[in-house]
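# nightly structure sweep
# worker-07 picked up a monomer target from the shared queue
# config: single-sequence mode, recycle default, output format = structure tokens
# input follows
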Amino acid sequence: MPLIVPDLNPASTSADTAQQEWMTKLMGKKITDSGPSDNLSFAKAELPKEHRIVEPGAMLSKDFNPNRLNVHLAEDGTVSHVDFN
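# output follows
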């Protein structure tokens, strides 16, 4: 009889999916304050209400917020990666 192990943390799967979706939308684009999103930029107004833009070398608070999207920028101002916390 095969051993069946239930998913012990189903929330991490949906969080991973959300993170991957935002990476697909934002990777390599610049965040703009105005105008619509296009192939090279993404409008800040289209980000979730709970977000923060993290510039290279920026100091961050250690408060944990699993609903907050952190958008990390590279030196050239493009999105390098995203995470939730």
